[in-house]
Design a protein that fits this description.
Distance between the termini: 48 Å
Oligomer: single chain
Largest sheet: 2 strands, antiparallel
Structural class: mainly alpha
Order of helices and strands: HHHEE
Strand order of the largest sheet: 1-2
Shape: rod-shaped
Helix content: 55-70%
Radius of gyration: 24 Å
Strand content: 5-15%
Length: 122
Amino acid sequence: MAKENSRFEASVTQDIGKHYSQAAEELLQAYQRNKEASRHHESGAFKAALHHSKLSKHHAFNAHAHLNEALSLNERLDGLDFSTLTHLGASGATPSQCQVLQCKGILFLYARKRTLRQAQPV
């Protein structure tokens, strides 16, 4: 189970790295589009400058989204208690007693608590 936890943590860390790389690429594109917009503005081609500034804004927004996702994944990874997952596997919990949830690409394992309600005598 410890190997599975380390593999899971490694895959999430790899996903975080991908988001950082994609954010860097988007920021580079935003910078290049902004430079192009400045060149067009200086030459008097205002319509082309507006077009490139919109593209720059679009790339900056995408970079922001990737950075937010990387931060969110990192916070979830920090908050995930791997000892609970190990305990569930070691306790012999069956798939019917456990529940796997997927939230934005991350799998979480929770133990389902079954409560039996007994009829109270009146």
